[in-house]
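2.7 Reproducibility. Because tokenized structures are sensitive to small changes in the input, we list the exact sequence used for Bifunctional NAD(P)H-hydrate repair enzyme, including any N-terminal residues retained from the expression construct. No trimming or masking was applied before prediction.
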Amino acid sequence: MKILTAAQTRDADAYTIAQEPISSVNLMERAAGALVKWLEKHYSPDKPFYIFCGPGNNGGDGLAAARLLHQDGYDVEVFLVGTNQKTSPDFDQNLQRLPQEITVSHLETTVGVSDVSPLGVILDGLFGSGLSRPLEGIYAEAVAYINRQDATVVAIDIPSGLFADAPIQEGSPVVEADMTLSFEQPKLAFFLPASGAFVGEWHVLPIGLHSEFLEQVSSPYHVLTKEKAQSILKPRAKFSHKGSYGHALLVGGSYGKMGAVTLAAHAALRTGVGLLTVQVPQTGYGILQTAVPEAMALTDDLDRHLSRFPEDLDRFQCLGIGPGLGQHEDSRLALETLFRGQLPPPLVLDADALNLLAADRTIRQHLPPDSILTPHPKEFERLMGPATHDFHRLQLLQDFCSEHSCYVVLKGAHSCIGSPEGTLYFNTTGNPGMATGGTGDVLTGILTGLRAQGYSPLDTCLLGVYLHGLAGDLAAEQEGQASLIASDLYTYLGAAFKKLAEKE
Ligand SMILES: NC(=O)C1=CN([C@@H]2O[C@H](COP(=O)(O)OP(=O)(O)OC[C@H]3O[C@@H](n4cnc5c(N)ncnc54)[C@H](O)[C@@H]3O)[C@@H](O)[C@H]2O)[C@H](O)CC1
Ligand SMILES: [K+]
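Resulting structure tokens (single pass, no recycling of outputs):
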């Protein structure tokens, strides 16, 4: 699913109005209808609604929703905020259509305004995608008032005060929503940490924007949906054998960090890879053979850290490097030799492999094309430099992928996959329980296992990241988020594969 900018959303609106054709106010009616349908499904009529409307079409949506909820027997109260300024024509029309019985207050100030029922629902229709500057005056006051209330806060389209596709200044007023109902497409701001924190849970409500426009509009930003991940997943063939599913090599582990490569090995095996070999320093031999009997072990000449890669790399279809590797100079040299030599098998690089890469610009220049890198934000910063804000970070990600012809998985609440063409995909699976040691090592194992089975680098990232998060969600359902540990992720990976394969 594409993510559109605010300008593209306006164009989609205009195109739909002209081509369907439909009047602007009827399109608003359709949007409000979708909104109310969702609200009525989730909140019973004993919940009072407090609807805050600004001067534009977001406020117009709020007014139309007020009318529709009232018609269906809901108790509704409307607050008009800053609407003595210029209001939009569709706002005006919906204000006229508002039944007399609905209480309407014009808020000039929130001083002295009593709190709403904590059992009620506040609809935030102050500003939507038309926001052009930070909120001030009565708008900022209204935001502070909403944020003080104990009622459930549902934002219409986007929490007021957030820009759909641009950063906000720190400390500027933004509605803290429990739920955001976004029309047709989610906004880029939902996926980024500084702005996404205001959004709460979000849902997309289709409002019938013209499919022709949505198909032809070009956007670098995409949502990684279940449908997309499902379309990538290849079934296993009846007459296949272990040779059909590739041979992966994982290289990592050092004294005190054998757990990392062990986790990655389990995960790689759970992706269905045909064969797995793991190269570890000698200290790790017994640990690996005991912890992961399905894997074959190779040992380095050294006892505590890695100093070389195996000679005959051609027999592997993917090489995953990094979990527990450490940053010893010998390991750096081994990596440099690997990069400067014959083209190695497809690479997945994580953890200390990334740190070694970050510390040495010359090896970075020799990064084989089509490699997959999986940094967390700190590793990302070491590799790509500091970002001034979340949107800048996306730009750095795109630049890095294009400069090095590689694929980067920037890990986070919505992990973001960048491709050399500049396309970015935001993941939708996963939960905060996964913010715990070792979950990244599991991802490395998953990606290494999938890549070895012949998935393209992009498909590997999309499928692997989606499954990793889904395994986390299934694990959290059973174990709870706080108690989730990295090994749960590969334990639930099978269930994740099954769930992904299910047709709804
Ligand atoms: N295609 C769709 O998704 C549809 C969306 N709808 C809704 O329309 C809004 C966008 O409406 P718009 O009138 O363009 O913008 P706003 O309501 O967000 O803003 C109104 C108006 O206010 C001015 N303004 C901007 N920033 C400020 C500020 N900081 N302080 C004061 N005034 C400000 C500016 O002039 C804006 O034009 C979208 O989010 C949906 O909710 C349609 O209902 C259906 C189709
Ligand atoms: K809003």
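The first strand starts at residue 49 and ends at 53.
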